[in-house]
Write a structure and sequence with these properties.
Strand content of chain A: 5-15%
Helix content of chain C: 55-70%
CATH superfamily of the largest domain in chain C: MetI-like
Largest sheet of chain A: 6 strands, mixed
Number of domains of chain C: 2
Number of helices of chain C: 14
Strand content of chain C: under 5%
Helix content of chain A: 40-55%
Number of strands of chain C: 0
Number of helices of chain A: 19
Distance between the termini of chain C: 23 Å
Largest interface: B-C, 103 and 112 residues
Structural class of chain A: alpha/beta
Largest sheet of chain C: none
Chains: A alpha/beta (424), B mainly alpha (290), C mainly alpha (285)
Oligomer: heterotrimer
Radius of gyration of chain C: 24 Å
Order of helices and strands of chain C: HHHHHHHHHHHHHH
Amino acid sequence: MFKRLILLVSVISLISIFSLGVLGASSVTVLGTWTGAEEEAFNQMVAPFESQTGIDVKFTGTRDLPAVLTAQVEAGSPPDLSALPNPGQMAEFARAGKLVDLSTFMDMKVLGSDYSPTWLDLGSYEGKLFGVFISADLKSLVWYSPKAFAQGGYAVPKTWDEMLALSDQMVKEGKTPWAIGFESGAASGWPGTDWIEDIMLRTVEPEVYDLWVSHGISWLDERVKRAFEIFGQIALNEKYVYGGPNAILTINFGDSPDALFTTPPNAYMHRQATFIKSFILDHNPQLVPGEDFDFFPLPPIDAKLGTPALGAADLFAAFKNTPEAQALIKYIASPEAQEIWVGKLGKLSANKRVNPAAYPDDLTRKAAKILSEASTFRFDGSDLMPSAVGAGSFWTGVLDYVSGVRLDNVLMTIEASALDAYRK
Amino acid sequence: MLNTKKYVPWLYILPAIFLLFFFLVYPSINTIYISFFNFNSEIFVGIENYLYCFTNEIMLNSFKNNALWVILFVPITVFLGLIIAVLLDRVKYESWIKSIIFMPMAISFVGAGVIWKFVYAYRPASAAQTGILNALRMAFQLEPIPWLIIRPWLNNFCLIVVGIWIWTGFCMVILSASYKGIPRELLEAARVDGASEFKVFWQITLPLMKPTLAVVATTMTINVLKIFDIVYVMTNGNYNTEVIANRMYKEMFIFRNYGRASAIAVILLVLIIPMIVINIQRFREQEGIR
Amino acid sequence: MKRPVSPFTRLPLHLVIIFIAFIWLLPSVGLLITSFRGSAEVASSGWWSVFQHPFNFTYFTLENYYQVISRIGMGRAFLNTLYITIPSTIIPILIASLAAYAFAWMDFPGRRFLFVLLVGLLVVPLQMTLIPILRVFNKFGLAGTFPGIWLAHTGYGLPLIIYLLYNFISGLPSELFDSSSIDGAGHLQVFTKIVLPLSIPALASVTIFQFLWVWNDLLVALVYLGGTPDVAPMTVRISALVGSYGQDWELLTAAAFVSMALPLVLFLSLQRYFVRGILAGAVKG
């Protein structure tokens, strides 16, 4: 029996050694978080590049990217190109000298005209360009059903107070205005941080927002506390939120908007980024975007601050300076590539030259317009903070707050972790 | 023992020793070393990372939770595994039931996370429940409750139940193999002498299975110290359910603080010293028999 | 020899067993039923609601299975999984059974120290080993190769396998070894002719577990082998079915059953080695 086993082992090893020997010579390895439909869209985006250049793009999409990328970079065998979870992570890799300065081979003039300075700044560290943005998501949106609004005789609110008045009216009529869901597996809590960030942008100057993100002001600051309280007026109000705080904590963010499309509606408004469209359509395939569901910008709180836009974006960086990697990142930054990518996914493009006709529907074009015309644009703050805060205590803190922990304790816990995390 | 030349034992253990040193000992030494350095292993910080581990609120909470896991998970999995192994020996459909108990081990932890979502799911009382526990509560006119949110006991119990569901199959398989190794004549002789089934189990079966029970208990204890995936997919340590290994994973790959992650790993190594002591005693006993 | 037992005295036994099995099966039944439902139904009602209309097949769909099998490119991924799993199961068990035998029945200096070390190594979290090991793998060109991942799974699996096999082999009756020694048999003969055949139940159990861990592993494969379709095992492809925001997670329900099939078949087919009384004849003879 053992002889047979040994024979089997050796046969298998021979086969696999030979099967590895036939790898193509000219290739570029790419690591990304994109899986499912996004992985397919990525492969479609690079297909023209592969046929034009003959370079083989070897893509690995995994939601375990943080672990895989960390291990590979530290062990000295990073992928040629990688998507990065956020600009904060990019800055960390750049500071450690792991990234390739893109300005050494990319045409900065073209980039300067293709991209707004905001995107180029976010992709830079100490004056060097390390990351390009491939697409963006607009977060400051409130989704609703125009039909349900028409039936109830509701108007789209233009200010925060109008929005609260509308909520009160709905409550009076025995309805529940909001659907909120923060559950997201290992990333639970992130939708809550978006709420806080959006409220911060609407109550303080953008410069103060930046200070908050860079820990220039404390989490115990009155202005931060106020943002949580404004959020709490909605989230902690049992009558405002479908299912109350328990539902916020346990319902998955992707399932949450379903409450808008039941008969009669369980809720009427849902604050979430552009990508939620794919969840709505997946769960309710009969709905027509723009008719059965639509969005309005999250209204302003302080009139003089206007209607700011909060967004996040997909970021690419190069770990190896090979000609193939250079060629691919140039291609990815181009409008040709991004038109394929945003067309498939309904994301918004970061490249200004992308033809709006590439977007799959009017809803996406409308979001793109809101993004490009916003008085103020700021990047998702939790993505810019050190991950121990931005992907740690901030997430947990919002959940704790909703679950009934005293706000002072919540903020003190976040502040303690921030004091520790920003030190490094 | 057989008499043999001095080098012969090494022929048997060297392949194992070599691989163990390369894959586990060398990285562990590396881990101990970098646990005394800062987040990117550049600056020596002494015992600062350890101080953090023993003062930080979340870390202290993780120790508490891991203790709860050890207290509940280990005895229950071993006991259930034993009972099931012994009971199943008496029925003809043994292998089918065994497969059912074993099945959770064959499911990936992501799959297990999805499964338990349909047990603990919460929907507002006015909606149709998608979790079976809350559906049962509704059937008895009780309000649905968010199982994984209610701290500090209920949600930790709910996670431990998932662990028990997965790992009892492991205990059952090992204990069943050991139970079947007991010479039947021994048990039959006692039965003929008029001993009750319970007495046979207590006075003959259990003592004979003691070494294997110790092995399974050791394995489960170590397993529970490293417990990670269940917590990671179900609560990610929120609402006071954090455990040591999940904290280590976060510090390592999400917060990218290698010093701290390493210190946590070293603490794990230290925590199993009691298990090592127990096993040395067993090792000696085993030698004594010869 | 057996006393006659009336079926009624055994009834409680059957009830207890069936009750336990029912509890254990219930969550998986939920998953199985869910795997045949569309995402809209899954989000709006519990899986048990299908029992209200069990024969109305319009509520069921094979879409999840179709998606899983067509999208993971099963052929290649399945072969990759076998390339990884089979050697990663056989190699550690061969090496571990040799070592367990030496620990149990041979005398050598440092034996106790090495045993302590072995138990200690059980707790080493493999996440901490990834970076240093990958560094060495890069140096020797093992990263991204199948032999590399075989070695890795062997290294990670060894402590527990040796520990479990040691327990079994050291429990073999010492008369076996005395009589062999009189016969003038060497260690190799004792090992292959006596120890291995008698350890089949133990070998079968560790085989199952090692196979399962390798089969279900995601992180080790991703880090040491990478996730490109030419080398990626099923777990990597399956985890990539779900979108980066968790879209289409219902595919995981079908995927769980697709990937569980082979381990369960293996478990059932190894059942015949879990037989009673394998030692009975050996001691007398």
